[in-house]
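Sharing a chain and its predicted structure for anyone who wants a worked example. Both blocks are below, sequence first, tokens second.
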Amino acid sequence: MSDLAGERVTSMEESREHEPHRDYTGSKIGMWLFLFSECMLFGGLFVLYAMYRADFTSAFLAGGKDMNTFIGVFNTIVLLTGSWTVAMSITAVQRNQKKLAIGLLSTTIVLGALFMVLKLMEWGDHIHHGLYPSSSALAGKHGLQVFFSMYYVMTGLHGLHVIAGMTVLIVMLIMLIRGKITAEHSVALENAALYWHLVDIIWIFLLPLFYLAA
């Protein structure tokens, strides 16, 4: 009897040895460090924006009047809704509601795509009206050229982060469908959601800087 019990213990120990090592704490710490570096990147751009705005206050106010406030606010709602659905997808996973989690995560990805479509349409409209650096419409208007330079750089960099976030979420969706993300192993989805929340927070700062600048 004791031999049988010993064999079971040995078998359990061997199975644990073959389980992949998962350092969830290290993964979360690494993600927070990465997010901190992203905050430093945009923080530097925010400081640069403040310096230019102090030098060209009237031009920045005029540039803000050329922004489509409705699209800016609507895109904010789109991203915030995406943050809510990705957070709810984590809750669904932890409750073993796989289908609901897949639907919620898919919704976040679709909302991210909608944000990018609206942003590209807005960029296209600005370019069509000559609202970009070195255009003839802004010739001799150095302050406005600086404003739109900051606008394209900062919203463009944010757009790249949205695309990166969507790519990560698509990978998470595939993993979720294949059963690699479960209630016991959901840290990857949690980290992806943290990144998406950062994308939203950055946009919340960009909204008043450009769309509410007037």
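Comments welcome. Residues 4-19 have pLDDT under 50 and may be disordered.
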